[in-house]
TrEMBL record:
Catalytic function, reaction form: K(+)(in) = K(+)(out)
Ranges of biased composition (kind: Low complexity): 378-400
Similarity comment text for this entry: Belongs to the inward rectifier-type potassium channel (TC 1.A.2.1) family.
Principal cellular location given in the protein's record: membrane
Residues annotated as domain Potassium channel inwardly rectifying transmembrane: 37-174
Protein name in the entry: Potassium inwardly rectifying channel subfamily J member 8
Organism of origin: Mastacembelus armatus
Length: 421
């Protein structure tokens, strides 16, 4: 038996209409991954299975500077005590070889006076290396070898002191200390500026001493796969900023807004607002410059993941002029406000410029409608207040009205009531 044909054609049936309907792209939830750069600028990277540990000992000074304070102090304390003990043993052997430790020697010339035990030799070693010189123990010209060891201990002590002072100075004057006062906005924003979709952040310096030759670099880090199938877990893509195009450095006197125009060369060119929230990209911001007071190069870093990028927002102004002085309100440093911004990608915006015009027109209409509603609400409130005041006046005037007087006039044995006011 042949199948029964429907009167409605198949292309106009429900399955055909569903297949012909444009489907919206389905975005998977972004898997939570570790960020490459933390908000405080530290690198979230762990080094494992390093076999050639001896490379760190080839640059001992840098290793000491990179160590934590407790390890550095322990190392220097151990070094000083070890050198004192080593030379104490040498002075004890010198005294033992010369016979200074023999209590039966009287009226003899000693190599080092008052060195009669290992304890006294240890105290003399400390006096020599740190140049205390109490005066009770001193070297004589009787033993040339003792003079040689005295010179050696002084040189070793000066080397240890120089390394310790240099390491402590470098640890206290590290560039990341100055970077603590270089701040970034907590969120990045994407909005329309000069009819172009732009990615913007705000940077600032809390100190009055400036950063000389400040430069800002932006990089987009994402996981990519090459056409050959190679997976690059950390693919760094440089992002061009307006400051890099117009000048070589920034004059970071007041907080600045760093703007990146999302054009066809930008890695954000094909991302819409919905696609951005589902992507796993990370925007790294690097601020470099020379500290004015010390001349040391400093670097401050931060990063923004997709959840920290606000689409359709703009930073509020924080610099005002008060009594001839420019004032910066840092309490509003990271504050943003909503603005009319197309939700499409920059590519779609370039292909269809009418989207931007329609968005701006809708924003202007909504703004006018909100103004009309606000004005009407104000007008109604004023009318209600006027009505309430007139009602109260009426109530007050009613108390002052002339009372009615009633007269009774008898007519034909009956009484009628006349009211006269």
């Amino acid at each position: 038996m042949l199948a029964r044909k429907s009167i409605i054609p198949e292309e106009f049936g429900l399955p055909g209409l569903v297949s012909r309907m444009p489907r919206k792209p389905v975005f998977r939830d972004r898997v939570n991954k570790a960020r490459f750069i933390a908000k405080n600028g530290s690198c979230n990277l762990a080094h494992k299975n390093i076999r050639e540990q001896g490379r760190f000992l080839q640059d001992v000074f840098t290793t000491l500077v990179d160590l934590k304070w407790r390890f550095t102090l322990v190392i220097f304390t151990t070094t000083f005590v070890s050198s004192w003990l080593l030379f104490a043993m040498i002075w004890w052997l010198v005294a033992f070889g010369h016979g200074d430790l023999d209590p039966r020697r009287l009226n003899a010339v000693y190599c080092v006076t008052d060195v009669k035990s290992f304890t006294s030799a240890f105290l003399f070693s400390i006096e020599v290396q740190v140049t205390i010189g109490f005066g009770g123990r001193m070297i004589t010209e009787q033993c040339p070898i003792a003079i040689t060891f005295l010179i050696m201990q002084n040189i070793v002590g000066l080397i240890i002191n120089a390394v310790m002072l240099g390491c402590i100075f470098m640890k206290t004057a590290q560039s990341n200390r100055r970077a603590e006062t270089l701040i970034f906005s907590r969120h990045a924003v994407i909005a329309v500026r000069n009819n172009r979709l732009c990615f913007m952040i705000r940077i600032g310096d809390l100190r009055k001493s400036m950063i000389i030759g400040a430069t800002v670099r932006l990089q987009v880090v994402r996981k990519t796969t090459t056409p050959e199938g190679e997976v690059i877990p950390i693919h760094q893509i440089d992002v061009q900023t307006e400051s890099a195009v117009t000048s070589n450095s920034l004059f970071l006197l007041a907080p600045l807004i760093i703007c990146h125009v999302i054009d066809k060369n930008s890695p954000l060119y094909d991302l819409s607002a919905m696609e951005l929230q589902c992507s796993d990209l990370e925007v790294i911001v690097i601020l470099e410059g020379v500290v004015e007071t010390t001349g040391i190069t400093t670097q401050a870093r931060t990063s923004y993941i997709s959840e920290e990028i606000q689409w359709g927002h703009r930073f509020v102004p924080i610099v005002t002029e008060e009594e001839g002085v420019y004032s910066v309100d840092y309490s509003k440093f990271g504050n943003t406000m909503k603005v009319a911004t197309p939700r499409c990608s920059a590519r779609e915006l370039d292909e269809k410029p009418s989207i931007l015009i329609q968005t701006l027109q809708k924003s202007e209409l909504s703004h006018q409608n909100s103004l009309r509603k606000r004005n009407s609400m104000r007008r109604n409130n004023s009318m209600r207040k006027g009505a309430g005041s007139s009602g109260s006046l009426r109530r007050n005037n009613s108390g002052l009205a002339t009372p009615k007087v009633q007269f009774f006039t008898p007519t034909d044995g009956s009484q009628t009531l006349n009211a006269v006011t």
